[in-house]
Amino acid sequence: SKLLRYGLEHLFDYLMTTIGPTLLHGRDSLFWAEAETVIQRCEGGSPLQIPLIKIISLIGYVGSFVGLRANSEVLSIVLGVPQKEIDCEVEKLVMQKLISFRPFDKEYVLWQGSDFDLEHWLKQARASISNQISVAELLTQSIVSHPLMARRHAYQTGTSRFVEAIYVSDTNWFVEAQKNSEWADGKMLFVVASSEDSRNFVLASLQDISGSLPSNVIVSVLSSVAHIRSAAFDILCFDWISKNCDQLSGDPAARKELNQRRIDAAAYVSNEIAELTHRRTDDDSPNWLLGGELIS
């Protein structure tokens, strides 16, 4: 005989039945109230829709603690349903404004209860901002670069030294390297190469002129940044919407969603930059200049 399945949707029902009043009056009462509201608004449709909402709400509540996101693959595994069927059903839920999709986290979350059309405003923002901005300029405008402390130097000497982190294009990095920082003890230049050929040219140039650069300048040459561009551009678009959309002032749910989308995009960009700076090249060729010496 087929074994009965106890899924996350059943856990949701158990929690709401046994300690529902406590959840609805506790610290996270707004979250549980939103989940109940979304379930009540669900028109039915397929038998999968309400279980999907319950599972998405539970994963949204505790998933971040264990690195679990409510994407199609996870939902397919949890419900034991083919992923194509899940994709079809979550698309219906998105169209009904019961759930929404966060592209940078690649997860579904409960709809925040707003009629604000974020995708419409994103289209307006993208049309209003030049798409000819270089990736280096996009990163400069969209990501807050915090000063970097030389920790080993501080441990060894007891003196704190800070370097300024700057994103530069592959066409103006040398000019920027010659300038003194106005407030920091040195500079770390992240050279954003527009192509693999451009990256190789910058590395060859570093090989030739490494001895002529100031010793307090650190250079890291980044490549394969095309996938970062769209996320950095969207951050500028979110900021444009914040400044130009009067509708947000009276819609706290819309402001919350806009802010969360910006946070997600910024986290994605920062994580990808960190990955690129620590990734070794395939041929183990040097991609850093530190103290006038090229290193891998």
Strand content: 5-15%
Number-wise, the strands total 8
How can the largest sheet be summarized? 6 strands, mixed
Low-confidence stretches: none
Please provide the ordered H/E string of secondary-structure elements: HHHHHEEHHEHEHEHEHHEE
What would the principal axes of the Cα set say about the shape? elongated
Question: What is the SS-derived class?
Answer: alpha/beta
Tell me the helix content.
40-55%
Rg for CA atoms: 24 Å
Strand line-up in the sheet with most strands? 3-4-5-6-7-8
User: What's the tally of helices?
Assistant: 12
State the distance separating the first and last CA atoms. Answer: 60 Å
Mean pLDDT: 86
Summarize the helices and strands and which ones pair or pack.
Blueprint: H1 8-25, H2 29-41, H3 49-66, H4 72-79, H5 83-95, E1 99-102, E2 107-110, H6 118-128, H7 135-142, E3 148-149, H8 151-157, E4 162-169, H9 173-178, E5 186-192, H10 196-209, E6 217-222, H11 226-244, H12 252-278, E7 288-290, E8 293-295
Parallel strand pairs: 4-5, 5-6
Antiparallel strand pairs: 1-2, 3-4, 6-7, 7-8
Helix pairs in contact: 1-2, 1-3, 2-3, 4-5, 6-11, 7-11, 11-12
